[in-house]
Amino acid sequence: MEFEGQVALVTGGSRGIGRAIALKLAEGGADIALNYRSATREAEAAAEQIAALGRRVELLQGDVSDPDVPRQLVAGVRAAFGRIDVLVNNAGITRDELLVNQSLKDIEQVLATNLVAPMLTVQAVAPLMMRQRYGRIVNISSSAASKPGRGQSNYAAAKGGLEAFTKAIAVELASRGILVNAVAPGVINTEMTDAIRSHGEDEIMRRLLVKSYAEPETIADAVAYLASPRNTYATGEVLHIDGGLKMA
C-alpha cells in the first residue's frame, strides 16, 4: 500500500489506459479523483471498482481542452481531499489525417487536449505540491512523438511537445521534491487505437519487436512506479513502453 494516504488526480480516467492507471493507484492505497469528459457510464463503473477496493473516489466531469477546466479540476480535488500527491495527465484525443487535409479545428483540438491541457493542469497543481514539498507528475505521451505514422502530424507534434514540456518542468520543480516524467505507450489494446490496428495491423506487426499488443495494465504498472515514493531519482525522463516499435 505504497500510496496509502495519498491522493491522485487522473485525467481521462473513464476507460482504457486512464482507467487502468486509476485502478492501479487505488490498489496501492491512493484515493482517486477521476476526471472524464463525456463517458459518464464508464466513469461511474470505474468509480465503483475503485470504491470496492476501499478507496475514496470523486468523479470530476470536464473537457480539459477548455482552458478553464484544468484549474477547476485542481480546485475540486483540493476542496474534496485537501491535497494532491500524484497527477497523471492521461486525457488525449486523435484526429488522424494527412496534413494537407487537416482542418484548423482538428489541429487546434489535438494540441489543446494533448499539450496545452497538461501544461495548464501542472500549472494549477504545482503550487499545492510545492507547499507539500512532494509530488509526482506523470504525463502520458505516445510512441508517435518519436515514431509517428502517416496522418499523425498533429498528434506527433502535440506529444513531442509534451515530452519537451516534461523535461522543462522537471527542471523547475525538482528542488521542491516534485518529480516529473512521461510514459510513451506504443500500440495498446484500447478503443482509441482500434482504428489504427484495424487499418494497419500488418505494418504495425512488422515494426514491433515484441509481436503483440500490450494491455492498458502494462502502462499502468510503469506509471505506478514513476508516481510512487519508490521513485526517488528519475525525473525528466520519457519511458517508452512500445514493444520495440521505436527501434524499427
TrEMBL record:
**Any idea where the Ketoreductase domain is?**
6-177
Q: Which SMART domains has this protein been placed in?
A: PKS_KR
- InterPro entries given for it? KR_dom (IPR057326), NAD(P)-bd_dom_sf (IPR036291), Sc_DH/Rdtase_CS (IPR020904), SDR (IPR050259), SDR_fam (IPR002347)
Matching SUPFAM superfamilies, A to Z? NAD(P)-binding Rossmann-fold domains
Q: Name one Pfam family in it.
A: adh_short_C2
**Family membership noted in the UniProt record:** Belongs to the short-chain dehydrogenases/reductases (SDR) family.
- Provide the protein name: 3-oxoacyl-ACP reductase FabG
Which organism was this protein described from?
Answer: Streptomyces siderophoricus
Biological classification of the source:
Bacteria, Bacillati, Actinomycetota, Actinomycetes, Kitasatosporales
